[in-house]
């Protein structure tokens, strides 16, 4: 905890039985808390990503370049291919 991470930079790894992938910081800021409970039950990441499966809490200190809610919704729609 307390580590500084930069948006888009590697800040860890996600590992499964068959693969390993990089974890990239969603924004620049300081890590406030790490979910150590995942060491005992990593399946929570998939089963409950919005409740108990969070990876770390970040105090965002630089939101330059962040999308507005409308721009993010448009990006998601485009990524899904539904172009709402």
TrEMBL record:
Which keywords accompany this UniProt record?
Answer: Lipoyl
Q: Does the keyword Lipid biosynthesis apply?
A: no
Q: Which Pfam families match?
A: GCV_H
Keyword S-adenosyl-L-methionine present in the record's keywords: the answer is: no
Q: What is this protein called?
A: Glycine cleavage system protein H
Q: Which organism is it from?
A: Streptomyces shaanxiensis
Lineage from the top down?
Bacteria, Bacillati, Actinomycetota, Actinomycetes, Kitasatosporales
């Amino acid at each position: 905890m307390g580590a500084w991470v930069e948006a888009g930079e590697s800040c860890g790894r996600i590992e499964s039985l068959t693969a390993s992938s990089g974890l990239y910081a969603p924004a620049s800021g300081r890590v406030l808390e790490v979910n150590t409970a995942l060491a005992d039950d990593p399946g929570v990441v998939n089963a409950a990503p919005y409740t108990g499966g969070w990876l770390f809490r970040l105090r965002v200190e630089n939101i330059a370049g962040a999308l507005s809610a409308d721009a993010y919704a448009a990006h998601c729609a485009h990524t899904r291919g539904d172009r709402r």
